[in-house]
Specification:
Layout (H helix, E strand, L loop, with lengths): L7 H14 L12 H8 L3 H13 L3 E4 L3 E4 L10 H28 L1
Antiparallel strand pairs: 1-2
């Protein structure tokens, strides 16, 4: 697949996925923040968020609201059952939607 055919969020997810799988980012390592990654890749914050969602869904990272994203203890989910993976993906999406809702509600209070 050529770089032109890869979406920006996919490029970020591929880059960080490779770093994790190759052991260049150890378990527990904090990833750069959304703003920093946006600047590094020259993309919008939403693009970075989508890349992080892809990495979370793949089980490569986990995120804590307000603290950032970190490399998971296991790089990948080869041995995990599909139901567990689906639940993790849904939990990640719910957390992301909750954060967005909180931001929207805070904007209304101003």
């Amino acid at each position: 697949m050529s770089n032109e055919a890869v979406q920006p969020y996919q490029r970020i997810a591929q880059d960080y996925g490779e770093k994790i799988r190759q052991g260049r980012l150890a378990a527990g390592t904090k990833l750069p923040g959304i703003r920093e990654l946006s600047e590094e890749y020259g993309v919008a914050a939403g693009t970075v968020q989508r890349a992080l969602t892809e990495l979370r869904n793949a089980g490569l990272i986990y995120s804590h609201q307000g603290r950032g994203s970190f490399v998971s203890n296991s790089s990948g989910n080869a041995g995990q059952d599909p139901t567990t993976l689906a639940i993790k993906a849904l939990e990640s999406q719910v957390a992301e939607l909750s954060a967005r809702l909180d931001k929207l509600e805070q904007g209304r209070d101003d």
